[in-house]
Amino acid sequence: MALKMKLKKSAYEKLSDELKKEYKEDGDDFVLDVDGIEDTGALKRARDREKQRADDLQSEVTELRDSNAKLESGKAGDVAKLQKKWDADKATMTEQHTAALSKRDGFITRTLKNGLAATIAAALNPKAPKVFVPHVESRITVDLTGDEPKVVILGSDGKPGMKDGKPLTAEDLQAEFVANKDFAGMIVGSKASGGAGANQGTRGGAPAPNANSQQPPSLAGLKPADLAAHIKAGKEATT
Question: Where do the domains of the chain lie?
Fold first, then answer.
């Protein structure tokens, strides 16, 4: 009777006690206990265990790689979303800021331009200043490029006016209207014999428009506070 090298437990139980002595337990199986024969089963089991371990490690590596790829993909997506949102917010804030600056600049321009025009118009004709307002306004602009807003008197060509190498002043503009024959019949405040647009007092200040004054007030060289007060007086005279 040939003996098998390896038996299942069920087959081992059927052997006689004498044959059972020839086998030794090996896990769930029984192997023939013979000297000089290599235990190939143990080697195979060891190999199988190493293969299983390698397979398990490979699975873990693959899983980790997939997880990392998903994380990196998610991060890239989040960064793109954040960048897109930041760009949109920046564009909105820039638009709002530009609109606010434009509104502010428009208010400053209207206030200075209209106020000075009303002041000059009231000096030219205190009884009907509105006749002169649109004509005077067309010769005034405001420069907002510096640290402070600056009123600029334009020449008849629409460019910043010059006289004797210096920028035109509000007093110079007022004198032009007084000397203009086209407006002679409408000017009330400059019919005295002192000459149209003649300086009164120093250039550091100017009196408020006065219906009884026979010459227009000097507006050149006014300090900001004095000019503001003068403009206010002129606007009140037109209402």
Answer: 107-238
